[in-house]
Amino acid sequence: MLQALSLADTGARTTEDVFTAPSQWMPQGRVFGGQVMAQSVLAASRTVEGERAIHSMHGYFLRPGDVAEPITFSVDRIHDGRSFSTRRTQAFQKGVPILSMIASFQDDDPGLDHQATMPEGIPQPEDLPSAAEVLAPIDHPVARFWAQERPFDLRHAPDPIYFRSAEERTAHQAVWFRALDALPDDPELHRAALAYASDYSILEPILRRHGKSWITPGLKMASLDHAMWWHRHARVDDWLCYVQESPNAIGGRGLSLGRIFTRDGMLVASVAQEGMVRVPLDD
């Protein structure tokens, strides 16, 4: 996990700050979107002075990334105001952008405080099988990677749709997750890691609603854009509950919304992602 979120300052200075980072190996050869988002968040954070923390980001996935190539991040310091700072980060490989993101940072200011309530009846993570337990019997390189190499433990409620469709066609699910390894006490790192994990399962409610699984023949999926709002600080090496739903799918695209809660019901973040979802229409 820490290797995937490592950045090196190149020392280059024009009107932008430039960083480089490695690509984490993935079995399909494409960079995981959550990785490049998290690295973009960290790169932008490195250019913000003082204690201002990221509270929102909006990013577009422009091209698939190549895991065999490092990634260069250029950060444009768009604005620094009295309470807010705005940064634009572009992630490049081979001279072309693969992700473009704008993020906003804010001082820790007092203000009104309310939040949505965590849904009731979600099983606790200890009562659910881990992804490693679900995928261990499957002799396939992608299954082995998901089971053994991902830096997060994911536990679905109801059952995951890795290899079979859901019994009930509902457009919602909950996923408990936490980092497998303890992370340093660095709030910036935890916020970036939260962005990383937010990309794992957010489009699954679209498949669940239509009785599809990840191995549906002819399925093609790709993240198009991702928006995220950080509300309250939480550690990603503690259990977090990601409540997800899909309000719409049309035109080969699907929209999913998510809310991330701590175990005791504190709302940590909200997420929205639209993805390309193409599947043969047989019903």
CATH superfamily of the largest domain: Hotdog Thioesterase
- Major beta-sheet overview: 12 strands, antiparallel
What is the alpha-carbon Rg in Å? 19 Å
Beta content: 35-45%
Describe the structure.
Residues 169-276 form the Acyl-CoA thioesterase 2 C-terminal domain. It catalyses: a fatty acyl-CoA + H2O = a fatty acid + CoA + H(+). Keywords: Hydrolase, Lipid metabolism. The protein is an alpha+beta fold and 283 residues long. It folds into two domains: 1-107, Hotdog Thioesterase (Thiol Ester Dehydrase, Chain A), CATH 3.10.129; 125-283, Hotdog Thioesterase (Thiol Ester Dehydrase, Chain A), CATH 3.10.129.10. 16% of the residues lie in helices and 39% in strands. The protein has helices at 33-45, 131-135, 141-148, 187-198, 204-209; strands at 8-13, 16-21, 53-61, 71-80, 84-93, 96-106, 152-157, 172-179, 220-230, 240-250, 253-262, 267-278. The protein has a twelve-stranded antiparallel beta sheet. A hairpin with a 2-residue loop joins strand 5 and strand 6 (96-106). The model has no long low-confidence stretch (mean pLDDT 92).
